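Hi W.,

Here's what went into the run:
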Amino acid sequence: MKARVHVMLKNGVLDPQGEAVRHALGALGFDGVEGVRQGKVIELDLAEGTSEAAVHDMCEKLLANTVIESYTVEMS
Amino acid sequence: MRAAVLVFPGSNCDRDMALALERAGADVSMVWHKETALPDGVDVVGVPGGFSYGDYLRCGAIAANSPICRSLAAHVERGGYAFGICNGFQVLTEMRLLPGALRRNAGLKYICRNVGLRVETRDSAFTSGYEVGQEISVPIAHHDGNYFVDPDTLNLLETSGRIAFRYTDNPNGSLGDIAGVLSENRRVLGMMPHPERASEPSQGGTDGAAFFDGLLGALAEA
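Here's what came out:
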């Protein structure tokens, strides 16, 4: 089984990289991009029976810094 | 006075930190990250700058979970002194020994140059060698030094005098121009600038020497 973890900067935490990407898109002529947020995706190969709660624990302890980042977990 | 300097794969300011501590009179041990205990009788632990574990995942995140950092957490829990400079500051925030986090610099560039700092408090062992309001010149060398903390905690830091240093001309977007902060018991300090790189004339400046002299002096009295 797999888990896919999305880690994003929290709303309200300025994302300078996302802002730079937004400016670059504008410079390429892509109008109408009002905001860009850049995050990361972490894929986990898990032993059968690993709980979603365990993945949340992994996020809290290592995969995300919850001072500035939020995360979501998709199990598949 | 016994000091320990932690060494991670990718640390590159560990020798500078050790030399600055030795110059101030400390007996320094280098401690590899896989060690599970600090040397007996260590008074202060330094977490150096560099790129621990290649800055993988987040700067300092892997180092914060290394075996020696469990001992560091226990040392701090017992009321021991510790400080982190640059990547060391990132490690201490990742360990939650200090509040906040260090984001990518607002200008997205790695910045390596001297900056002006204003000393905000001398009520800590680390800042006791300076005067409040004193301006010093110390190098920074970082890509992720943009300090962030939630508004309530920022207010707490401000009102309890836990901001140690501020930039006189904010280079990286840090909230409140914050360059260094103290823990609640004032025995843990983190800062992005490098006093150990301004500790003797051959380094081009000596404004960082008082950081280590003050620390050694304060611990000798303690």
